[in-house]
Predict the structure.
Amino acid sequence: MAGGEPVRTEPGRSGVRVQPAGGPTNIETGVPVLDHLIALLATYARFGLVLQVQPGSADAEVAAAGAALGDGLRDALHGTETRGYGSAAMTSAEALAQVVLETSDRPLVVSNVDLTEARLGGLGSDLVARFLQELAEGARLTLHVRLVNGSDTQHVLEAIFKALGVALAQAVSPTT
């Protein structure tokens, strides 16, 4: 969606507005933990981001949020005047994560992070893997996520989303 248009959602659909040059941020996925993580992503990317997801199961809301954000970023990432790639390493307390991404016609997520047994905010953190997969497919990205260090689930996720934000900011930056 263009920068100045209001976000409208139709029944069963999600709405997104991404402003790579900055702007207001309002995240409403229905999953408070995911709202926090996506807000971190927007802050570290310095994006304006409005994201609204239609209510449903937590899994459906997480998938819809990732797909909507990916769709909203696709044009900016694949523009002829943008880099289309980026990388960053970020911390959150004891956690250190690295994210490397590049536009691709064959979306892929490669990660050494396994949080299937962890729980954060009552959610299975493996839902974040679903979010990243949907984001990669929607934006058409090859996305590598590496956890260098960290054991606290919240810190690990925050480090990943911060690094993802910085890498996305690099990827949408001008080539000149």
The longest helix spans residues 58-77. The first strand starts at residue 15 and ends at 19. The two ends are 25 Å apart (CA to CA).
